Inverse folding.
């Protein structure tokens, strides 16, 4: 009996234990996706808000102390205080506003100065002045606007209706409605625009459009005009940040950036064989690079800068995001043959169109009063014709030349320069010699004049680059090189004299451009993007011959982050144009070796048009 009771007891305990083991725990409240998403947004706003700027314009024409006359928004993209906003925020009746007051979400008000502008893209760069030297600013990360898709969530932050009196930006949340939009308002034209329903009003102009990673993917242009006037109408357009990236170097260098045109007009035509629309060239300008590349009326454009072309608006959107003088790949078809080439874009300078509601002039009529520079930003403002702010151009130019000087100081070497070695041209070659020296001037034996000698095998050429009355043929010698001897002379002059070697102070920083380093075996690359390198550019002019000098900078070429091609400041390419009606002589320097404390190139490729003229292998360089 006791055994039975014991077994029953143990069985009861086992059942109880089993019951306890399988009894589910008290259910936990399910997570609310909407609440989580809301919390994520709130935390993201806290993270990215510190880099958003409220821009205030002061009007000194009515109040000598400078009352607030308007404003906009901006976003800081560099710890030194460089900030992006809209061009129309800094524009004052066709004149640039030199300085501003800018409020930060930390409650501080800073002085700021205009650095550079891109009128065509309605973009400007300003710089906030730190209150103490060495202070830095919070920075917003730039994203990739090419990844945007209709339906993506975005946030807009800025000084809506100038309500940010405590400098804390307003926030709105909405969707991307469309991408790659071409929008022509009549008074303004926007290419490759982002369309959104995210609320933006006056005062949001120039403010950042964020994706949900907290990256800047665009800048606010403004809303579409409507009956409600200054208020949001449910449709807005923004500048894609990838367009702004193409002009950052130009604006950072204090330039008036200029957008590009192809130098040819196109129209869409329906194919007779199918419903496919063709983009056909119907006119080519005679002096355009696209014409020199052989493109003619009737050619079908297939792809430009990596984008397929199926409509005129699509073509305008693709073309409108690039600066003038950039070289970009173009694919076209003639008959059954498809061809690829690089085309150098021409300048497109849009006419300045006054707003319909703009007053006819300042007090008493005439031109509006010129904006004044004020505050701490005034010492960073330097006017010069052709520049937004020459102070910053000079700063960038001198810093670039200083980096180059670390790799080799040529200023003492103003005597004879000689290169010798071998050359290869069209599978033929031999020995070469290039000599630049100063000889007695036949017209005045007391003076000297430069002379360039080029020996290629049995052929010898001579050029006095400063001789009056030289023809384009003489300047372009040897034939098919685009002017190699003039290029060699300009190269020595620039390396030895720097900015002082240009007449009329023409030596200036010219922004950032792509350079294409063709395969060493002379073949054509499978994709031009594979051989593209971005470079900082300095432009010079001497003896009425313009030249461009291309410098390597690792930060511009993340594709080389593991192994940069050259040290920063390396002069690795150049273009010298002896006639504006023909292709320049292009020089590409490589195989650098340290000789006497200077990094000297031992391989120089010379190109003209879309062909290689010759490859020079330098054995000995003598610089005196």
């Amino acid at each position: 009996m006791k055994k039975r009771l014991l077994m029953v007891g143990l069985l009861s305990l086992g059942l109880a234990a089993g019951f306890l083991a399988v009894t589910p725990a008290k259910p936990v409240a399910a997570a609310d996706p909407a609440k989580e998403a809301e919390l994520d947004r709130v935390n993201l706003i806290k993270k990215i808000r510190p880099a958003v700027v409220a821009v205030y314009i002061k009007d000194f024409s009515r109040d000598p102390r400078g009352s607030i006359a308007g404003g906009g928004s901006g976003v800081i993209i560099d710890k030194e205080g460089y900030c992006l906003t809209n061009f129309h925020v800094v524009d004052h009746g066709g004149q640039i506003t030199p300085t501003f007051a800018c409020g930060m979400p930390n409650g501080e008000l800073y002085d700021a100065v205009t650095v550079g502008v891109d009128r065509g893209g309605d973009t400007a760069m300003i710089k906030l002045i730190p209150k103490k030297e060495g202070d830095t600013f919070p920075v917003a990360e730039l994203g990739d606007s090419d990844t945007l898709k209709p339906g993506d969530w975005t946030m807009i932050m800025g000084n809506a209706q100038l309500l940010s009196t405590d400098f804390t930006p307003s926030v709105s949340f909405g969707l991307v409605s469309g991408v790659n939009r071409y929008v022509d308002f009549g008074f303004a034209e926007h290419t490759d625009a982002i369309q959104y329903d995210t609320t933006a009003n006056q005062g949001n102009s120039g403010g950042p459009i964020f994706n949900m990673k907290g990256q800047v993917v665009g800048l606010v242009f403004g809303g579409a005009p409507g009956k409600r006037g200054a208020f949001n109408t449910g449709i807005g357009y923004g500048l894609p940040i990838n367009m702004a990236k193409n002009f950052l170097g130009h604006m950072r260098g204090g330039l008036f950036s200029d957008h590009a045109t192809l130098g040819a007009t196109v129209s869409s035509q329906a194919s007779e064989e199918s419903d496919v629309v063709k983009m056909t060239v119907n006119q080519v300008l005679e002096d355009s690079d696209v014409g020199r590349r052989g493109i003619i009326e009737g050619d079908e454009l297939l792809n430009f800068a990596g984008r397929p072309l199926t409509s005129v608006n699509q073509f305008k959107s693709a073309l409108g995001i690039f600066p003038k003088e950039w070289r970009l790949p173009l694919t076209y078809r003639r008959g059954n043959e498809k061809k690829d080439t690089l085309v150098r874009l021409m300048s497109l300078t849009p006419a300045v169109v006054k707003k319909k509601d703009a007053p006819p002039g300042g007090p008493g009529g005439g031109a509006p009063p010129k904006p004044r520079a004020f505050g701490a930003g005034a010492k960073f403002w330097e006017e010069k014709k052709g520049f937004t702010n020459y102070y910053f151009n000079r700063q960038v130019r001198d810093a670039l030349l200083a980096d180059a000087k670390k790799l080799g100081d040529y200023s003492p070497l103003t005597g004879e320069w000689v290169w010798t070695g071998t050359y290869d041209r069209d599978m033929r070659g031999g020995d070469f010699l290039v000599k630049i020296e100063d000889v007695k001037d036949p017209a005045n034996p007391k003076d000297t004049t430069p002379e360039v000698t080029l020996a290629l095998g049995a052929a010898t050429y001579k050029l006095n680059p400063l001789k009056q009355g030289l023809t384009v043929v003489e300047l372009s010698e040897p034939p098919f090189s685009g002017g190699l001897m003039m290029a060699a002379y300009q190269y020595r002059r620039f390396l030895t004299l720097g900015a002082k070697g240009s007449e009329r102070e023409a030596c200036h920083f010219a922004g950032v451009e792509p350079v294409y380093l063709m395969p060493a075996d002379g073949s054509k690359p499978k994709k031009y993007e594979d051989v593209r390198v971005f470079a900082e550019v300095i432009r010079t002019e001497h003896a009425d011959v313009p030249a461009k000098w291309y410098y390597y900078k690792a930060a511009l070429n993340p594709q080389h982050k593991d192994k940069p091609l050259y040290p920063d400041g390396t002069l690795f390419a150049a273009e010298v144009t002896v006639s504006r009606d023909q292709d320049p002589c292009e020089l590409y320097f490589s195989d650098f070796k340290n000789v006497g404390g200077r990094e000297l190139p031992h391989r120089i490729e010379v190109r003209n048009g879309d062909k290689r003229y010759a490859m020079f292998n330098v054995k000995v360089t003598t610089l005196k």
In short: The chain has three domains: 46-257, 259-348, 417-623. The CA atoms of residues 159 and 596 lie 57 Å apart. Confidence is low (pLDDT under 50) at residues 1-22, 225-229, 350-365. The radius of gyration is 31 Å.
